[in-house]
Amino acid sequence: MTILFEPHRREAQHFAVLLGSDVHTATSGEDLLRLLAEYPADQSVILGPGVDLSVALAMAAECRVTRPALGIVLIRERVDVGLLGVALRSGIREVVPANDPAALLAACARSLEVSRQLGPAAGHGSRRFGSSAMDAKVITVFAAKGGCGKTTLATNIAVALAAGGAHRVGLIDLDLAFGDVAIMLQLVPERTIVDAVGQHLDETLLRSILTPYTSGVDTVLAPPGPAEAERVTRGLVADVLEFARGMFEYVVIDTPPQFTDHVLTALDLSHVHVLLTTPDIPALKNLRITLDTFDLLDLPKEQRFIVLNRSDAKVGLTATDIERVIRAPISAYVPSSRDVPVSINRGVPIMLDNPHHPVSTSIREFALGWLTTPTPPRTPVRGLRRMLKRGR
Ligand SMILES: Nc1ncnc2c1ncn2[C@@H]1O[C@H](COP(=O)(O)OP(=O)(O)OP(=O)(O)O)[C@@H](O)[C@H]1O
Ligand SMILES: [Mg+2]
User: Fold this and answer.
1) Has domain 2-122 been given CATH number 3.40.50.2300?
2) How far apart are the C-alpha atoms of 189 and 193, rounded to whole Å?
3) pTM value?
4) pLDDT of 126 above 50
């Protein structure tokens, strides 16, 4: 069943007819609250064009915590990128134009499908933060060469794994000095990891430094500049990751292009290492050195996945050539497209902007195919621990 909220009766009637028979209609806030309480199993709320945007955003922000399975679809007279950004950040699943009934029906069907995947228990808030049943799979995205596409991949993997709110994903920017997650997602870093420096970290403190993004994705942002970044200790990073594991189903970590102590800590605490390269000799050489370093550090081979970004670049190297150079198999091929920087400049990951784009499809197939398998036990990484103990 679906709840439709539209204060103008004629509009309410119009959309109720369009949505079919399984609709409870509310024309006031009180009606809406009553219906939500009366029908806790309802999985979809449609907010009509007459609902004030601030009310819609506040409601979505509240529901993402109290009823995460509830999908909110917002109807607006005009839809633009700015509106999409704020709506998705507040937890609204879909925004559709008022004059496009087909888009509305398709959005409702998609939203119900996501809610269905969450199962009935989720409708009662069982996936709230702090339900210590969570034991996140921790995924670090790394490349020793800058500009390979780490942040692009990490942000899009996070959105893909969240599947519109079906799963809780924590995206952590460990590129502490020059982090780009905030800018790529158009987030204002009001609270960052630095706000936890010198304090006893617990779940409440970690929750207070999260910046929510879209449905299912919350971020821990890097500080605004390198000076603040220096205050973040390796111990704080370890604590953030340990607490995040209890709060999310997936933790995705973006990294700088160096083996910093923070990166080594993340690699040590991760279940999966996603190593990125592009099809050019410097990037491939750096990946080969990275793989050798991983071997030296005893980081298990079975936890590694290699992603070839810009895989279709015509540079005279075939996939076989590349696998021969790096002496390891490639798990995913992400094509090159000018739509990627365009989406970055708009501050919306291509996965949200255009879910059917070949770049989105390849990243989603990789994320859902390789990263959602059951969390393997984490084996202590002896070589890496020795290195960290020496305080390199
Ligand atoms: N598949 C792709 N097609 C086209 N452009 C891409 C693709 N992947 C990444 N880019 C572009 O490459 C640039 C670098 O990407 P990104 O910032 O994700 O790399 P990075 O590895 O995080 O860089 P840094 O090491 O500086 O943190 C961006 O401008 C992005 O738009
Ligand atoms: Mg980056």
Assistant:
1) yes
2) 10
3) 0.70
4) no
- Does 131 have pLDDT greater than 60? no
CATH architecture of 137-389: 3-Layer(aba) Sandwich (3.40)
Q: Over range 329-336, report the average pLDDT.
A: 94
Distance 146 CA to ligand 1 centre (A): 9
Nearest to 143 by CA among 308, 21, 298, 23: 308
Distance 309 CA to ligand 1 centre (A): 9
Q: What is the mean pLDDT of the chain?
A: 87
Place of tokens 């990125």: 276
**Residue nearest to ligand 1 atom 19, measured at CA:** 149
User: What residues have a C-beta under 5 A from ligand 2, the ion?
Assistant: 150-151, 180
8: Cα within 13 Å, side-chain hemisphere? 9
DSSP 99: T
Could you tell me which residue, 392 or 216, shows the higher pLDDT? 216
List the domain boundaries for the chain: 2-122, 137-389
What pLDDT is stored for residue 125 in this prediction?
Answer: 37
d(CA 115, CA 216): 12
- Among protein residues, the one with the nearest Cα to ligand 1's atom 3 is 336
Residue to probe by mutation, ligand 1, list 275, 312, 337, 340, most atoms within 8 Å of CB: 340
Please report how many Cα atoms fall inside a 13 Å half-sphere around the Cα of residue 365, on the Cβ side. 12
Strand order in the sheet with 23-26: 23-26, 2-5, 44-47, 71-76, 94-97
Token digits of residue 311: 């895989």
pLDDT in tens, 24-38: 999 988 888 888 888
pLDDT confidence bin for 376, thresholds 50/70/90: low
For the segment 189-215, what is each residue's pLDDT rounded down to a tens digit?
999 999 999 999 998 999 999 999 987
Closest CA to 131 of 238, 249, 43, 36: 249
Closest CA to 387 of 274, 286, 293, 253: 293
What residues pair up with 71 in beta bridges, in sequence order?
44
Average pLDDT score over residue span 345-361: 93
